[in-house]
Amino acid sequence: MGGGNVKEPLRLGRILYTNVWPVYHYFDPSSLSFPATTRVELPAVLNRLLLEGELDMSPVSSFAYGTAADQFMLLPNLSVSADGPVKSILCFSKKPFAEAIQGRIALTNTSATSINLLKIIAEKAYGAKPEYVTCEPDLEQMLEHADAALLIGDHAIRADWSNAAYTVTDLGAEWKNWTGKSMTFAVWTVSKQAAARHPDRIGELAAALAASKRRGLEDLTPVARQAQAELGGELAYWLGYFENLNYDLTAERLDGLELYFRYAREMGLLPQEAGIEIWTDNTEIRVNE
C-alpha cells in the first residue's frame, strides 16, 4: 500500500482565514512520515489550485468541491459549518436586506460558496433579481456603487467591528431561517488521483488533522489568543466565534450541503449534479448516488 514516489511531497493547501485555525493549531506537517508542502491562500486561490491539479489535498469552498465532485473526495468529519449565524459571512447594506438585494450587490472575489449562497438566498428565498458586480474586499469602495456588499472571513469580521452605518445580515442565519438546515462553507478535499497513489499518506494526514482538531476544540483559548494577537479584538469575541462554528461533517451537515448543491444546480450555478463521496481507509463511501 502507499504507491507513488516516496520522495514526492504531498501538496497541501490551507485557507488563510482564522475560521480553520482550530483544525490546524496543533497540526505540524513536518511531523508527518512523508514530505509535504503547504500553500496558505484565500479560498478562491485554493479552489483554483486544487481544480488545476496543483494541490493534492486542501480545505476549499464547498461550492468548488461541487463543481468537480467526480474528481474529489472529502476527508471524514472535517468542515467549517454553522447551524445558524456564522459571524463571518456578512452582507452589509445601506437599506434593509430585503430591499437592498433588489438592486446592485457587490460580491467579494475571495470565495465561491458564499457568493453563490447569497445568490440562492436573494433569488430563491426573496425572489430578487439583483445585478452582481465583483470587487476587491474593501467595504467602503464596494458600497460606493452598490446597494449591498458581501464580505467573508477576516475581512467581514474587521468590517463588522468598525461598522456603524450599515445593516449587517448574516448569511448563515438567513440560510437557517429559510431552510431550517445548517450550512457547510468549507470542506477538506482530496483528489481521487492522490488518494489512489498515496492511500497510506492520506490516512496519516487525515488522522493528524483529526487529532489536531480534537485537541484544538478541547480548549479554544490558545487559538483565540492567537487570533486576538494577530487580528485584534477581544478574547471573548474570538472564543465565541470559534465556539459557534462546527468542524464536523455529520449527516446533518451533509443534508444541508446536499440542499445547497441542489439549489445551485437548479439555478444553473453548478454544471452538473454534485454527489458526495467521503474518503475512508482507501475506500469511497457514497452518501448519495
TrEMBL record:
<comment type="function">
    <text>Catalyzes the dehydration of chorismate into 3-[(1-carboxyvinyl)oxy]benzoate, a step in the biosynthesis of menaquinone (MK, vitamin K2).</text>
</comment>
<dbReference type="Pfam" id="PF02621">
    <property type="entry name" value="VitK2_biosynth"/>
</dbReference>
<keyword id="KW-0456">Lyase</keyword>
<comment type="pathway">
    <text>Quinol/quinone metabolism; menaquinone biosynthesis.</text>
</comment>
<comment type="similarity">
    <text>Belongs to the MqnA/MqnD family. MqnA subfamily.</text>
</comment>
<protein>
    <recommendedName>
        <fullName>Chorismate dehydratase</fullName>
        <ecNumber>4.2.1.151</ecNumber>
    </recommendedName>
</protein>
<dbReference type="InterPro" id="IPR030868">
    <property type="entry name" value="MqnA"/>
</dbReference>
<keyword id="KW-0474">Menaquinone biosynthesis</keyword>
<dbReference type="InterPro" id="IPR003773">
    <property type="entry name" value="Menaquinone_biosynth"/>
</dbReference>
